[in-house]
Design goal:
single chain, 3-stranded antiparallel sheet, two-stranded antiparallel sheet, 51% helix
Length: 179
């Protein structure tokens, strides 16, 4: 399991998306605090059990006589020790090694895809970290710029409406002469 601490839920989302898209289906976000808390530091857990591999290939028997009949290298003292006994033949063991190696290759490919997707997500401009004061200042400036644009648009609209009214009044005056 790879744990990645993030600054916010918004920062955790692209990491989680990259992990799931790369094939780490069991990944998730967790936090010791409520995730809706602005002070929460979400932790992305990247994990997958999909390529797990287990097989019993032998057992260890306790209490069996040691293979050389010696205890601590002293002649004449028999030792009760542990003996490993194979449950599968060498051909079956070779097949298991091949399967395990295929899974290592598949897992390496997943990791490569995750790195690629994570790199793409980290290069997005809209996800850049910004200090609270800097963000407030940027937002204030954006708001003032929009307000100025809106005021300019309103003045233009008012002037256009005034011109239309003048034109309509002028036309009505011209039409009065026809009656």
């Amino acid at each position: 399991i790879l744990h990645i601490a993030t600054a916010s839920l918004a920062h955790a989302a692209p990491i989680l998306s990259a992990a799931i898209s790369a094939g780490f289906r069991e990944s998730g976000v967790q936090s010791l605090k409520n995730l809706t808390d602005p002070n929460a530091l979400p932790m992305v857990a990247v994990r997958s059990a999909g390529l797990g591999f287990e097989s019993t290939i032998g057992v260890v028997c306790e209490g069996a006589p040691a293979s050389d009949g010696l205890a601590d290298g002293e002649p004449g003292k028999e030792q009760q020790g542990e003996v490993a006994m194979a449950l599968v033949n060498e051909q079956y063991l070779e097949m298991l090694v091949e399967i395990a190696n295929e899974r290592f290759v598949a897992n390496t490919e997943r990791i490569r895809r995750f790195e690629e997707l994570l790199f793409k997500a980290s290069n997005r401009k809209d996800d850049e970290w910004e200090e609270k004061d800097a963000r407030q200042d940027r937002k204030r400036k954006e708001g003032l710029r929009r307000k100025a644009e809106l005021e300019t648009n309103m003045k233009c609209r008012d002037r256009s409406l005034q011109m239309v009214d003048e034109d309509q009044n002028g036309m009505l005056g011209d039409l009065e002469g026809f009656t």
